[in-house]
TrEMBL record:
One of its GO terms (molecular function) is cyclic-guanylate-specific phosphodiesterase activity. Residues 24-277 form the EAL domain. Signal peptide: none annotated. The keyword Endoplasmic reticulum does not apply. Coiled coil: none annotated. It comes from the Bacteria. The keyword rRNA-binding does not apply. The chain holds residues 503 to 784 of 784 of the full protein. Keywords: Membrane, Transmembrane, Transmembrane helix. This is EAL domain-containing protein.
Amino acid sequence: ERAAERGLRWHSYSSDEQDEASWRMSLLGELDGAIDSGQVWVAYQPKYDLKSGMVIGAEALVRWLHPERGAIRPDNFVPLAEESGRIGKLTRHVLDTALGDFATITSAVQRPVVAVNLSTTMLSAPNLVEMVCDALWRNGVLPEQLVLEVTESAAMTSDENALAVLERFRSMGIGISIDDYGTGQSTLNYLKRLPATELKIDQSFVRAIADSRSDEILVNSTIQLGHQLGMKVVAEGVETTDVLERLEAFGCDVVQGYLIGKPVPFNIFTRNYRPQITERAA
Ligand code: C2E
Ligand code: MG
Ligand code: MG
Ligand code: MG
């Protein structure tokens, strides 16, 4: 009987799993209110152009500062929002915040670009195009100032309809970036069909180029491939000058990473980079 008892216990949830499950459930119930009350905010990580030596914009990264649980990482609540149908509200909030913030950067030499991450599930949301257009108009930001980042796997699994949505954005002048490139399994044929303006090499490969010859070859040839396909190539997760120098030698266009700057609140971002962005302004 003891064995059976134990067997039963093995097949039921452990208290850790139960904690995890109820933690997820309660977070889910709190997300709506958290967005409305300002607990969900947006951090900006600079994108640095290697040729001009200037910060040309930022990636918007969502953050949740929970009053009891502290800072919750997007990896812990974005998937929850996706599963529960709250991702539309979250996406609208990030888009609106990011475009509202960037609309305040005036007199820039080149209008700074802001990149917003899009969940795979959003690509099949019927109101996505309307949501993006609406956010641009309301905040008075040009489509050329917005980049939408979709993961390689999202782009891969996307149906014809999702492809049409990306093409629609492209025709409006919005940039499309393929995020985490190298982690999915997109074929060259597929990559060729994507209306993307930017290829963003995943940080796992970027970090590895410092001590792996094969990763160096992979990253170098990916940069050349991106250029051949007419895309700008971005490397994410740049943490050392050694890696930065290699990327520069390979002709990489833009870098992002802790070496350049961590994701920070908008006021810190502008304090750090406004002089650069507006350097040559009249
Ligand atoms: P991602 O879009 O690939 O973003 C890059 C992640 O790497 C960010 O983590 C960033 O803070 C981190 N990172 C940047 N540079 C470095 C570096 O030099 N070293 C290290 N170790 N990490 C670096 P974060 O902010 O935790 O975001 C994780 C993921 O959550 C993002 O990956 C993105 O897929 C997702 N995410 C973030 N914000 C949003 C959002 O507003 N909407 C959606 N749908 N997803 C989001
Ligand atoms: Mg991204
Ligand atoms: Mg990425
Ligand atoms: Mg990622």
